[in-house]
User: Fold these one by one.
Assistant:
Number 1:
Amino acid sequence: MKVIILPSKISGEIDAPKSKSIAIRILFGSLLNNITLREEVPGSNDVKAAYNSIIEMGVYHEGNKLKKPYSINLNKKFFAGGSATVARILSSLILTLGGNAIIDGDETLRKRPFDGLIKLAKITNSEVNGNSLPIKLSSKGIKDYIEIPELESSQYITGLMYGFAYKGYGVIKLKSRVPSFSYIMLTMDLLNDIGCKIKYEDNEIVVEKCLKKDYETSFPGDYLLSSFYAVSSLLTGGLTIIHNLYKASNYFGDHKIVDILSDIGVKSKLDNGNWIIKSENLENLRVNVDDSPDMAMSLAPLGVKVEVTLDGINRLKIKESDRIKSIKDVMEKFGSIVSIKDNTINIKPNKINKAEIDCNNDHRVAMMAASISFLSGGIINNAECIGKSDPKHWDRYEKLGGKIKVE
Ligand SMILES: O=C(O)C1=C[C@@H](OP(=O)(O)O)[C@@H](O)[C@H](O)C1
Ligand SMILES: C=C(OP(=O)(O)O)C(=O)O
């Protein structure tokens, strides 16, 4: 799919795309308690992979209810699609509860490293055939305690939290700084919402038995998937309101992008789950993205107008694409000057070109290129990659006045 974008002002009101991270957590939550869904399961590819996995494990979906299984069957072959979140949560469930499983993914996910799984398998005396998919994993399970080494992803820890919640008790000792820590907090908040009892103190995540509770929920909006619309609106001088975002927590996470834009001069504020963005004079920005790595793709496009410096970028190499290279390639094509030193990337505005970009199997590359293209004009090839997280991405832009031609 080729998407041709003409310069156009992005302005108006949309509902936020559904949070992929929260939707995946809600679905895995049905392993622990019955869940009543107030709306249909979001249709992005990663959420579908999570849905298929929980059904494979024994969750029963009837009408608007997800019914927890009497027992979880992990001796299966799972397909995680392009979702590393799903693949790593599954692998940690197998390590925690025991099982003989195969986890596979699509061509993009097969290229991504699962080094952390090798380390965790060693610690838990489990057998694993390698650090890339398809992975064959055999584990006898773990009792109630694990010390975590340095890992490339927080997603393994999320999976361990679900596993211990299912077992009824467990302690996860965090020996070193956990990357993407905001996602651990997101998991803890969600599991406590569905009736579990999890606390984090003194570098330990203590998981206690989940109370039997019928939990009812809708699927809240995603801050970073929304932020591409916000950035294109402020780059093109628009006023945009994005509805149905979840209540922002006080730790640094995806939701902090509202404040980050406000801190550089944008009229950016949250009003009861509605994000209001109005273009004002922009200032330079510097952000450490290690706790919320996906934010890099949302902030980089501002580098066509102001200087953007992003620290804590090393792990961007192992996402759907090498995002350090992707950011450099895309921003240089649009005319900015990019330099990379150690764990930091710097983007300086220069001229603004129309550019032709390939999605490179990375949904956020297409989204970052699009957010600039409404200012400069642009073409995005293989643009169907947005289906990983936001299949209605191009429809929403058309609703906001975007001039788009899809071929
Ligand atoms: O737990 C999650 O939902 C996610 C965690 C992050 O990955 P890492 O923990 O590997 O950084 C993030 O990049 C991903 O998009 C979603
Ligand atoms: C990296 C991402 O997701 P995952 O790690 O689940 O593939 C993403 O959504 O940008």
Number 2:
Amino acid sequence: MVQAIVTDIEGTTSSLSFVKEVLFPYSASHLRDFLHTHGQEPPVRRLLDEARQLDGDAREDEQLVNTLLRWIREDRKFGALKGLQGLLWEEGYRRGDFLGHVYEDAARRLREWHGRGIRLYVYSSGSVQAQVSLFRHTAFGDLTPLFHGYFDTRVGGKKEAASYEAIRRELGLPPADILFLSDVREELDAASSAGLRTGCLARGEGPPVDPGPHPVARSFDDVSL
Ligand SMILES: CSCCC(=O)C(=O)COP(=O)(O)O
Ligand SMILES: [Mg+2]
């Protein structure tokens, strides 16, 4: 019996285009201003130091900014970049520059599953801060009360079975009682290797999704527990 659902964001609860055409460009165009205003604050400094360690060449501030901008263009999933984006996007949400996109079927079924006592979690490459901000500011209101917890790449990469084993341990449930939802075959394969149930979202946005052996759903309405 499914007791917990762990969901990906981009391509699963939320559209690819929101992430690629709203969030990423926003972080690129606001990065310099954000660092100018907040660059001396301890959480930001820690993330900048972490980014500097990943790119030994980026000793000067300008070089580091250029490295971060390149990582955004290349969609790199480094924790330091994701942490900075999360802080920067939170400002954007609070200013009302955009809302977190969540598909209607996802918002509705997440509410239904929560009402049935199923524990809901998010696992995304976006930082925990970015995940919370997205679900707090949606067209369907604040969805954060629905979630028990959030995981980002601090628990490990999304294509590694060990990450799902760590999540399972944290949830304290048998793996077969946990359903992982994603639009990326390699993530589903990794979750399945750790013994989790899987569901592949193929929403028809962007390049065709390869479901492999995983049950396919065109929306959360098709997800069977
Ligand atoms: C938390 S919204 C931003 C998502 C993001 O930064 C990203 O890289 C997409 O990651 P996902 O694991 O949700 O596909
Ligand atoms: Mg995804």
